[in-house]
Amino acid sequence: MSQTTVPAARTALLLFDLQNDFIHPDGAYARGGQGDPDIAALPARLAPLAAAMRAAGGWVASTHFTLVPGKGGEPIISAHLKALRPFLRRGDFAPGSWGHQLVDELQPSDLLVEKVAYSAFYMTRFEWLLRKSGIERLVVGGITTNGGVASTVRDAHVRDIDVTVLSDGCATFGRAAHETAIAALRPVARVATIAEVLAELGAPA
Which of 24, 54, 113, 152 is most exposed, with minimal Cβ within 10 Å? Predict the structure, then answer.
């Protein structure tokens, strides 16, 4: 399917894990000293596209990495994630919390998907929401290019969902890793810039 044949009403801008706990200066990752300038720049880059998508009658969806509270309120954290991110603690990425929310610059989202792993399709209602909403195309921006973004794009591909990945609307920790991930996604998705998608929506770049 050619992406340009899918109307805005059946297209969703997927804002991937652009949550306060990941990218806000007061969030969990900033507290743990984890940051990247390209990641920090994403909300400002993507905000005009989110506005244009809404104006064109399209959808804005957001994924939200979630640490589900277990017994006593302690978050259920995979062992490998705890080893990589020892700073994570109770309340981080908790459902309904400030840190769990989409950053203010990109609010609101029409569809919100909580997820517990890389892919937005793994053990979630995401595909059900897309089918019920009549969404046939995803335009993906967010973090991380070589993690959740890549996993979700590949899962969308095998589900026959049309996907455009924003080369300048995604980021990860390190520019080289981002570029490698974008190159690896070209066989399963269209790669475009924010300006190109804005032009398709009839909005100024």
Answer: 54
